[in-house]
Design a protein that fits this description.
alpha+beta, globular, 319 residues, 2 domains
């Protein structure tokens, strides 16, 4: 497993354990000891004690804040109202749910989710290839035949290079950025603009929902000596009161975009497109080859460059 993954899993486990420790004397609570939990625990235990402590201290700082803004965490109706903590399998992300840790009170029909990130902010890693209809997959609107006609010669070339010699490296393609990246990005750009024009109000909103998920969640980003908490409250399910107990801070609802404003190349870049939408959303799409050897597919590293000013963000510094 890549380092980044192990770190991320260890942080998920630290969050789960700190929730448990912090709430076990206040409310009925249980941990769902499923496969993802065992996996995360193994990742956490693979670190030396010092690193484990850092994970837990960071998690603890985030949790103290979450308890203040989510009264239902520490308040149950009665003893039978159990708070269940669960680590989600990675498969969920493919269906548009980006949450890693779930906290559920089924008696109150309530849950919140946390997306745990360790020092990184990428939202999705999606692929483009001749067999992938990104319009259908991401936006619910299929790509046109002309898009596939445009990308076909490039992917055909990559397929035949690989067929000739499986060990062919990307670096062996002359002017690779011009003949592969830019051609694919231009086709992608044209298609995204066309889809938006033909499906007004749908594409911009679906794009953001595809990227940040179809559920409200808190993103907890562990940095060095600090933790950042962002609240993606798109559907208004975060920050709810429990009976007369109100949250200690107000989290505004986020507005989804309704239209695509422009798609441009990032300054001095042949690999990155910036997609600007209304309501203050901007997303970067950086194309790259996932392996050093040629294959007929490319990967996007997709990042949220800017979110609406109503995105609730809190930084907690840790000594």
């Amino acid at each position: 497993m890549a380092n980044q993954t192990v770190n991320g899993k260890a942080f998920e486990y630290a969050l789960l354990i700190e929730f448990y420790e912090r709430l076990k004397n206040i409310t009925s609570i249980s941990i769902k000891e499923n496969e993802p939990y065992k996996n995360a625990k193994g990742c956490f235990n693979s670190f030396v004690e010092n690193d484990r402590d850092t994970f837990r201290i960071t998690a603890s700082a985030a949790i103290n804040f979450l308890i203040d803004i989510e009264p239902k965490l520490s308040n149950g109706i009665d003893k039978s109202d159990t708070l269940v903590l669960e680590i989600v399998s990675d498969q969920a992300g493919q269906t548009g749910d980006v949450r890693d840790v779930l906290i559920i009170r089924s008696l109150q029909k309530w849950e919140i989710g946390i997306s745990a990130k360790n020092n990184h902010r990428a939202v999705k890693h999606s692929r483009l290839s001749l067999s992938i209809d990104f319009g259908e997959k991401w936006l619910g609107v299929p790509c046109s035949q002309s898009y596939f006609n445009e990308i076909k010669p490039i992917f055909d070339m990559l397929t035949s290079l690989r067929a000739k010699d499986k060990s062919t490296k990307w670096t062996s393609i002359e002017n690779m950025h011009e003949v592969v990246y830019i051609k694919i990005l231009n086709a992608f750009r044209r298609e995204l603009l066309r889809l938006d024009k033909e499906n007004p109000n749908i594409v911009a909103e679906n794009l953001v929902q595809y990227l940040i998920g179809n559920q409200d969640f808190y993103k907890v980003i562990k940095g060095s000596k600090k933790v950042e908490i962002q609240a993606y409250n798109l559907y208004g399910t975060l920050n709810l009161p429990f009976e007369s107990v109100k949250p200690k801070a107000k989290i505004p609802k986020l507005k989804l975009p309704t239209r695509l404003i422009e798609i441009v190349y990032q300054d001095n870049s042949t690999t990155t497109l910036l997609v600007s939408l209304n309501e203050g959303w901007q997303i970067s799409f950086r194309i790259h080859n996932a392996s050093s050897r040629v294959e007929p597919s490319l990967k996007f590293d997709i990042n949220l460059v800017s979110a609406p000013h109503t995105l609730f963000t809190n930084h907690i510094f840790i000594a």
